[in-house]
Specification:
Elements (H helix, E strand, L loop, with lengths): L2 E6 L3 H11 L5 E7 L2 H11 L3 E4 L8 H11 L4 E6 L4 H10 L3 E4 L4 H12 L4 E2 L1 H13 L13 H11 L4 H8 L3 H15 L4 H10 L5
Parallel strand pairs: 1-2, 1-3, 3-4, 4-5, 5-6
Helix pairs in contact: 2-3, 7-9, 7-10, 8-9
Length: 213
């Protein structure tokens, strides 16, 4: 069975263009289209897609609000923001709402497919501009928290560094000569110890604390 995708965008031409291209992929199935955030929520409840390509600015309900509702009710559904906005006021709320990816609409077709597959595999895919905004946001926040890194074991620290390099669990397992199941356990443990929500935050935490370049 292919990756089941719901497209949410208020521009019919954009929806049709995305659907036309994605349908050419043998391992992707377009199961629905929504013209606004409210429709996206309703179709997500009914169709239970694997991933939603979500626009940000839409009538009735925007993409951020729709993402919050969908992730609260159906956390297993992956959401990738596909938008024209790259400013901090849109990037940060979108990721805080639960989006696993943030890409701009000028993304190359092959890269779009690559991002979709990586998000389904459990990775986070951020446009470079989105990443820079997040790093700036983190650096501007004052924090008096103790250094949580000291709580990590050496192996957890190794896994954290590999996450920051953008590697998947399978790639980390191969690099560190451990099983993928063990990697998943380390990821869960380090997220808990560092009080982080997901791999994106873990990667940014590693960069912020100069664990990797």
């Amino acid at each position: 069975m292919g990756i089941r995708i719901l497209i949410a965008d208020d521009h019919h031409v954009v929806r049709r263009g995305l659907a036309f291209f994605l349908k050419t992929q043998r391992d992707i199935e377009i199961i629905g289209e929504a013209g606004n955030g409210k429709e996206a929520v309703e179709l997500a409840r009914t169709l239970k897609p694997d991933l939603i390509l979500m626009d940000l600015v839409m009538p009735e309900m925007d993409g951020i609000q729709a993402t919050k509702i969908i992730k609260s009710e159906m956390p297993e559904i992956k959401i990738m923001m596909l938008t024209s906005f790259s400013d901090q006021d849109h990037v940060i709320p979108a990721l805080e709402a639960g989006a696993s990816g943030y890409q701009l609409k000028d993304i190359e077709p092959d890269e779009l497919i690559n991002c979709i597959k990586k998000i389904i595999a459990g990775e986070n895919q951020l446009h470079p501009k989105a990443t820079s905004h997040l790093l700036a946001n983190l650096s501007n926040k004052e924090s008096n928290e103790e250094n949580l890194i000291e709580q990590l074991t050496k192996r957890e620290l190794d896994v954290l560094k590999e996450i920051a390099r953008g590697k998947s669990n399978k790639e980390i397992a191969s690099s560190l000569f451990i099983t993928e199941k063990t990697v998943k356990t380390h990821v869960s443990n380090l997220l808990s110890k560092l009080e982080l929500a997901d791999r994106t935050q873990a990667a940014l935490y590693a960069v912020k604390n100069q664990l990797v370049e």
